[in-house]
Batch of 2 targets.
Target 1
Amino acid sequence: MARSKDTDGRKVVCRNSRALHDFFIDERFEAGLVLRGTEVKALRDARASLQDAYATVEGGEVFLVNMNIPQWPGAAYFNHEPKRRRKLLLHAKQIHKLFVEIKQRGCSLIPLSVYFTEKNRAKVELGLARGKRKYDKRHAIRERDERRQSERES
């Protein structure tokens, strides 16, 4: 899987395509990832998946859970666990804000994409999300189909 390059110089490793379908994204945050060496090599090779991944706030820290980074084939003994919890780097004020939003409003913290910046730092884009109901999903699909139809006609 080849990495794509965004307009602002980010090298996108993977995206969570289901997140925008299943959730309303209220706010977006950029967080750094604490990784081990073999995890960085696997990410550079665009070998990661955000399917079923989420973030939690525990003890004043934010952790990314269930993100799958497969083991690097070149490292035999010093390899990493593919679905381990990874610490995210955020400012204390951002962590407090996320904690309050999650506890009071019942929002979820969903990873939207993983990418490398121009300075080769691994980052994850988090979304503060509210779940969509089934009728919301159908409405979004109907709007998308109508937009595509009008683009075809013009």
Target 2
Amino acid sequence: MNTMIRLLMVALLTLPFAACKKQEAPVATAAAPVPVPVNDNRQAWIDYLSDVVQRNMGGIQNQPYVYLLPGESTADFQDQYTRLAEKAKDDVGRGIISGNMLAYGSPASDKMADLVAAAFKDVPAGSMKGVRVLFVGKAADSDRVKAAVAPSGVDYVFVEAK
């Protein structure tokens, strides 16, 4: 009887440790990319741009600076453009340190390209090494943006919104 009780006690004491076996981590499957919005729907563009930014972080640990300009059909488009252009210019003018990302996207790709070019106009050459600039727009605007940001020394990434 004593032996039986001892065996039962040993079993009860070892049971919790046996249950603590490491569980296998579930295999992470990459989510499908968010499709490019076909209209100027703001929430659809927010979702799309967020997905593109996450897919292009590539080692960037800091919270990215994300600039989303609405479509030109938006009622107060010009006011929003002016405010966003000022913010982008102020942010870049203060200086962005290595390890950060600036992401620009809009259904109005040509206007966003204008905004980026204006923001980087007075940035000293080589002052942004280690900073990633992500431009999400039309291929026709990419070269203009790349030429505008290249002197600053950034790592330029283009994602075509097609």
